[in-house]
Amino acid sequence: MEISLKVNGKDYTADVEPRLLLLDFLREHLGLTGTKSDGGSTAGCCTVLLNGISVKSSYILAVQADGSEIVTIEGLSQNGQLNPLQTAFWEMGAVQNGYSTPGLIMALTDLLNRNPHPSESEIRAWLDGVLSRDTGYQNVICAVEMVTSG
Ligand code: FES
């Protein structure tokens, strides 16, 4: 099936198998390997923005994203510069194991777009619904607070 969508500001048209996951389309067809697979768990390493809403790209077929606008972790940086949230993750040591990091940042991007000044409990509640708790989240909270206080 032919699909057309915008990814990180670029238009793409592709002929894909109906059962191809959006995650695999992004990684294998577009080479956007910043979006991770967590090997079948529900941890959300594959989170991207679809029309501005954070979604798990392994839960969505590429054909379901036809006509939509996707932003992946690669789409957050501009001219090779990390955005403020990415910079805060780096500076606060919130990068965890590298697999979780892109999904965390994409999910938090959605949260900050909805609520530019979330409380700690709101941040924790948001992450509880999106990603698993494989490590402590204190540095992630500190990174978000660094962005929202600046
Ligand atoms: S790869 Fe596990 S939730 Fe997407």
Automatic annotation (TrEMBL):
Domain of life: Bacteria
Name of the protein in question: (2Fe-2S)-binding domain protein
GO MF annotations in UniProt: 2 iron, 2 sulfur cluster binding; metal ion binding; oxidoreductase activity
InterPro entries listed in its UniProt record: 2Fe-2S-bd, 2Fe-2S-bd_dom_sf, 2Fe-2S_ferredoxin-like_sf, Beta-grasp_dom_sf, Diverse_Oxidoreductases
TM stretches of this protein: none
Entry keyword set: 2Fe-2S, Iron, Iron-sulfur, Metal-binding, Oxidoreductase
Residue span(s) of domain [2Fe-2S]-binding: 72-145
PANTHER family: OXIDOREDUCTASE WITH IRON-SULFUR SUBUNIT (PTHR44379)
